[in-house]
Amino acid sequence: MSTIRHDDSVDVEAIVSNTPGASPAQMMAALTKDTVRIALFEHRNVVTQRDIDRALIHQLAGMENPIEEMEPEQRRSIAVHEAGHAVVVHYVLPEKRIGHLTILARGQTLGFMLPLDEVEQYSYPLRRIVADIMVALGGHAAVRIIYGEEWTGAYSDYRQPTASGSLFTRSHSRPRRRM
């Protein structure tokens, strides 16, 4: 941060705690190019903590792409969906906190929820894989409960459980040695 002009709101500890799992390349891009671009776009010559937070989200989830003409009921279904993810995180992964929750479209998503580990995780119990699958499907469950049917649009939620299920299967299918 010494090479970027910033105000007193910049909190290095907050940056670190909000980016577990971020690659060094993502961090550098967010802290240099993206953060400065945001400040300059708003006609400022110093970076704020808010600029850094926005830049990190841009790196992790893509740029905001608001859909202005969306029907209120569709917007509500996205909110229900994202809230479903958050509720499941709260109950099955209490060691995580919600770092970001939005219904603004970003990249290929209509909204997203970003759960954060309190500490960097390098390995974890297999129950965590099951909990991650539950979180990924929590949005669909919430929509089904509220609307009585499933809605389209959240295809990326199915990719994560498929990958996690594959990892879980591989973890349990190793031959065990008998002693």
TrEMBL record:
<dbReference type="GO" id="GO:0004222">
    <property type="term" value="F:metalloendopeptidase activity"/>
</dbReference>
<keyword id="KW-0378">Hydrolase</keyword>
<dbReference type="InterPro" id="IPR037219">
    <property type="entry name" value="Peptidase_M41-like"/>
</dbReference>
<keyword id="KW-0482">Metalloprotease</keyword>
<dbReference type="Pfam" id="PF01434">
    <property type="entry name" value="Peptidase_M41"/>
</dbReference>
<protein>
    <submittedName>
        <fullName>ATP-dependent zinc metalloprotease FtsH 1</fullName>
    </submittedName>
</protein>
<feature type="domain" description="Peptidase M41">
    <location>
        <begin position="70"/>
        <end position="162"/>
    </location>
</feature>
<dbReference type="GO" id="GO:0006508">
    <property type="term" value="P:proteolysis"/>
</dbReference>
<dbReference type="GO" id="GO:0005524">
    <property type="term" value="F:ATP binding"/>
</dbReference>
<dbReference type="GO" id="GO:0004176">
    <property type="term" value="F:ATP-dependent peptidase activity"/>
</dbReference>
<keyword id="KW-0645">Protease</keyword>
<dbReference type="InterPro" id="IPR000642">
    <property type="entry name" value="Peptidase_M41"/>
</dbReference>
<dbReference type="GO" id="GO:0005886">
    <property type="term" value="C:plasma membrane"/>
</dbReference>
<dbReference type="GO" id="GO:0030163">
    <property type="term" value="P:protein catabolic process"/>
</dbReference>
